Amino acid sequence: MKLAVIGANGQAGQAIVAEAVARGHEVTAIVRSSNQSQAQEVLQKDLFALEAADLAGFDAVVSAFGAFTPETFPQHTTSLEHLTAILAGSGTRLLVVGGAGSLYVDESLTTQLYQTPDFPADYFPLAEAMSKGLAALRNVKDVNWTYISPAADFEVAYPKTGDYILAGEVFTVNEAGESKISYADYAIAMVDEVEAAAHPQARISVLGK
């Protein structure tokens, strides 16, 4: 497949590129600075400067875009608004590296994890911003998107196990009562979804076994 990874220099982006390349896919890194990933092709351009022509011909675009300061938090919404606007009606799929804070803690899908009393206060603004981005994405009907939330404990240093648990909208733990996953195993789940296209216009979540 022909894939583009936006934010390919980030930790999640690099892991996703590495997994996709290892499986034989043709990957273009879309980065603002010099490419640090294993992608075979590079487009050096800011996400918000991308045009429809830049993404034409890709089977799927993966957004591993991140914004981690208060002044950039709104970009979790505006980045998805921009990407869906230029992908609208193209047939190119959009897959988004999401967050765990927007997962629900009840089957009625009423309360999100970041809204619970024990959620770390330091992470609340980021989680709230990412939740707003997902809410905006849910309104998009003319792009085949999939949003993939990682486990609550999402760490680049965790080892690659080659396995994961696929879940849905509700916060899930493994048999040990843990919600954790490595970047490498998350990348496996992401590329699996790229290949299978099994969850159109839906949010899924993944965690380690």
TrEMBL record:
Gene3D superfamilies noted in UniProt: NAD(P)-binding Rossmann-like Domain (3.40.50.720)
NAD(P)-binding domain residues: 7-192
Domain of life the protein comes from: Bacteria
Family matches, as PANTHER family: FLAVIN REDUCTASE (NADPH)
Official protein name in the record: NADH-flavin reductase
A molecular function GO annotation: oxidoreductase activity, acting on the CH-NH group of donors, NAD or NADP as acceptor
Listed SUPFAM superfamilies: NAD(P)-binding Rossmann-fold domains (SSF51735)
Cited InterPro entries: NAD(P)-bd_dom, NAD(P)-bd_dom_sf, Polyketide_Oxido-like
One Pfam short name: NAD_binding_10
